[in-house]
Design goal:
The complex is a heterodimer of chains A (about 150) and B (about 140). Chain A has one domain: Thiol Ester Dehydrase, Chain A. Chain A is built from three helices and five strands; from the N terminus they run βαααββββ. In chain A, a hairpin with a 7-residue loop joins β4 and β5. The longest helix of chain A has 13 residues. Chain A is elongated and about 55 Å long. The two termini of chain A are about 15 Å apart. Chain B is of the alpha+beta class. Chain B has a domain of about 90 residues: Hotdog Thioesterase (Thiol Ester Dehydrase, Chain A), CATH 3.10.129.10. Chain B is built from four helices and six strands. The radius of gyration of chain B is 16 Å and the shape is elongated. Chain B starts with 13 loop residues before the first strand and ends with a strand. The chains are: A alpha+beta (about 150), B alpha+beta (about 140). Chains A and B meet through α1, α3 and β2 of A and α1, α3, α4 and β2 of B.
Chain lengths: ~150, ~140
């Protein structure tokens, strides 16, 4: 079962994820997002963005890579074949745009167990590298997973 | 395209509706685009072995698809400053044909100081809710 010792853990920032134009186009097409701001640079600039803008849930691509540090760690005790995604929340401090170099700090906010069911909540603080100084906050992605017990 | 204006909105207004058709090809496409290769979204026998009715859509695909009606209404996908949901029921996707997901977007709250509107999404498949507490916060002028 999920190891309660991981609650409160904070991981070191990930290596940068480079947001590419074609990745934004590919993800937008996969979720049926036809807004030209995802596909056409002129349209994106017309809305005031420096480059193609990512759809509202694109940050999950970046967050799930960071979450893998935790959920794929055998010591965390998470059996992925028994996992159900319970909820997801995005707070965007600014939209993600092509060209961003994103680093993520993963937090394990809670690990709880009740009646053979475990629930874990993670939080990804995603920030963009800037030429100088601290990375600029971009998105906070909070995700809860339920892990069904062996008997349920 | 004229963007909606906060002052013109009232709580309870239905601002958008839509239907998202999900088929197996769409699931495979989303798996590749998102990097979520959990076999419950493409392997029928694996899905049934772990107790599911069959291959189901990624919750994140449903979440990511239905918010399109809100982004289109807002006229700027970057205006969606927050978005959350609970995954209450899986959406089984048949081997042939599609699963239809219906979405209705309603104004749930207006924050004039922040210049934002909370849009509540009702998302159903075959008349059953598949997302719960699904809320998008949109910045308008």
């Amino acid at each position: 079962m999920a190891n309660p010792d991981f609650a409160g853990r904070e991981y070191a920032a990930t290596a940068p994820y480079g947001v590419g134009r074609e990745k934004i186009r590919e993800f937008a097409s996969a979720v049926g997002a036809l807004d030209p701001a995802h596909h056409d640079i002129v349209a994106a600039r017309g809305l005031g963005y420096p480059d193609l803008v990512a759809p509202p849930t694109f940050a999950v691509v970046v967050a799930q890579r960071a979450e893998a540090q935790y959920v794929q760690d055998p010591a965390a005790g998470i059996d992925f074949s028994r996992v159900v995604h319970a909820d997801e929340k995005f707070v965007h401090h600014r939209p993600i745009v092509a060209g961003d170099e994103l680093v993520t700090v993963l937090h394990v906010d809670s690990v709880t167990q009740r009646a053979g069911i475990a629930m874990v909540t993670t939080r990804c603080e995603i920030a963009a590298l800037v030429p100088q100084g601290e990375p600029e906050p971009v998105s906070t992605v909070t995700s809860s997973l339920v892990i069904r017990g062996e008997d349920s | 395209m004229a963007r909606p204006v906060l002052a013109d909105l009232s709580v309870g207004d239905v601002v958008a509706t839509g239907t998202v058709e999900l088929d197996r090809a769409r699931l495979v496409r989303y798996a590749g685009a998102s990097g979520d290769f959990n076999p419950i979204h493409w392997d029928e026998s694996f899905a049934t072995e772990v107790g599911l009715p069959g291959v189901i859509a990624h919750g994140m695909l449903t979440m990511g698809s239905v918010v399109g009606v809100v982004a289109d209404w807002a006229g700027d996908p970057g205006a969606v400053v927050a978005y959350q949901t609970r995954f209450t029921k899986p959406v089984p996707v048949p081997q042939r044909g599609t699963a239809a997901v219906e979405v209705t977007a309603t104004v749930g709250a207006i924050d004039t100081d922040a210049g934002t509107v909370r849009v509540d999404l009702t998302v159903t498949h075959e008349d059953a809710k598949v997302l719960g507490r699904s809320q998008a916060t949109v910045r308008l002028s």
